[in-house]
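User: quick one, fold this
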Amino acid sequence: MRVVIINRSDHLGGAAIASSRLAAALRQQGVDARMLVADRGTEGDHVAIAGSAFARKKAFLTERWGIYWRNGRRRDTLFKIDTATHGLDVSRHPWVREADVIVLGWVNQGMLSLADVERLGKLGKPLVWVMHDMWNCTGLCHHAYECEAYHARCRACPLLGTEGDDLSTLTQARKATLYRRTTVQFVAVSQWLASCCQNSSLLRDKPVTVIGNPFAAGEFDWHRATDNPYGVAPGSKVFVMGAARLDDPVKGMDLLIAALRHLAQERHDVLQRMHLVLYGHLRDQSLLEQLPVAHTHLGYVTDVETVYRHADVVLSTSRYESFGYTLAEGMACGCVPVTTGQGGQVDIVRHLHDGYVTGSVAPADIARGIVWATEATLSRQVLHDTVAARFDAPIVAARFMELFKELITKKQ
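Assistant:
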């Protein structure tokens, strides 16, 4: 079986990592899986760059300019929305022509336009679209937050600052036309994302399968490391929170700070027995000064397993997560997960069974989860086995292969 996975990047962002891991998982199962990207950062002859440097830059800049012109020239939302008006025509690429199945991932920012997707659909091959956020079921945005306009008609988009019908209305209509003309098998990476699709006017009547993101859980060691690289005080619990960008508003670092301040007032004893390790880029370094707890900021890390093996708890205060890789990886290393329940996290963590899921993003709720984790006595091996049984790469690859075979059979 030959599969080509098309994604904006093979290394930058959660969707890129998930797509690269899927390609690796399929290849390990004997599938000839390759990746076409606009931004390549890894080695290997199974990854190729689509289009010329000029074509990639032109598509990216032309689309950004169109958004900038229509969003009131706001820079703060320039990369929170996508229109898929410009992209790269990869329908003639040899890997696409040779493929038995075409898999789309995160294809925005000039990778593929909606017209390019329609061209791929006309090749007559099974077309699978793995959704890593809400973009496929909304007008413009990747996360709708509290906005429910996508349930019916997108308009007066908060990210545009407009009134009435606007660019979100137009893009939603263009997506509806594409979905009507093109047969696509959509895959949501979590039950939460699938429910968003069921509520949307665009995808409520379309086929959506739920398959979680893969990772090599079997390569994660659940044994607690015994050295002390962070200078943790004796008897303290080590909490880890990580993200590509920690102060991205979606990741909820402000919620973390508020929760810790709540503990400072209500359970100062818990803070005294806690050491917080943060990893990921942080634009606003002053946020670290607001943490009322012993902490270590590692910056960008490539070896997350080592970080988690030196920890007891993996923490996520995200307002929304389509999946929740940090939770799955932390659990695979034996860390107790504490998370908000605003998305795909609930597919990974079962409340009070193998972790703590807060009922809201209220700081007091998050604080209660932190207290619970300091007292939890869950087996590190059981936590590892629990997440591996659902998301280990061979298991997820097998589910995709079953879906691919079913779609190929239908085409015959």
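User: anything notable?
Assistant: The two ends are 15 Å apart (CA to CA).
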